Amino acid sequence: MRLTKSTDIALRIAMRLAVAGDDSPTTREVAEAVGVPYTHAAKVVSRMQHLGVVEARRGRGGGLTLTSVGRTGSVGRLVRELEGTGDVVGCEDDPPCPLRAACKLRGALRSAQEAFYAALDPLTVEELTGPPTGPVLLSLGMRPQD
Question: What is the pTM of this model?
Fold first, then answer.
């Protein structure tokens, strides 16, 4: 199973924000730090806000912070929310698969998809940012010191 680009970006942003401490980087700063275009990051941050994972404040002193849900919630739940629970393959696409009425593959793939999510369920973003990942995340897109 391969995650969508949006989910990949969301997880990278969440991990970067998890190590931000008291700093509240802007969407532009986070996009630069995790190596994604600003426009993509802005769309993903909006979705993350809607899910209650990120809080965004506008204006002077504003920026992004990871909420407690984003920090300690299940990565599996977050990925499910971002990816959706649709089929791994397009059995009902146009044209639909001619095997769909008697296919065992669809059920096997659904089980595999659930096993994938279940493997992520016990993890939190906070746990994913422990050493050696945290220090690397902190070094990304560091602001120059005055």
Answer: 0.86
For the chain, the three-class secondary structure string (H helix, E strand, C coil) is CCCCHHHHHHHHHHHHHHCCCCCCCCHHHHHHHHCCCHHHHHHHHHHHHHCCCEEEECCCCCEEEECHHHHHCEHHHHHHHHHCCCCCCCCCCCCCCCCHHHCCHHHHHHHHHHHHHHHHCCCEHHHHCCCCHHHHHHHCCCCCCC
Token pair of 45, please? Answer: 């941050």
Distance CA 72, CA 128 (A): 10
Reported as a single tens digit per residue, the pLDDT across 119-145 is: 999 999 999 998 898 888 888 865 543
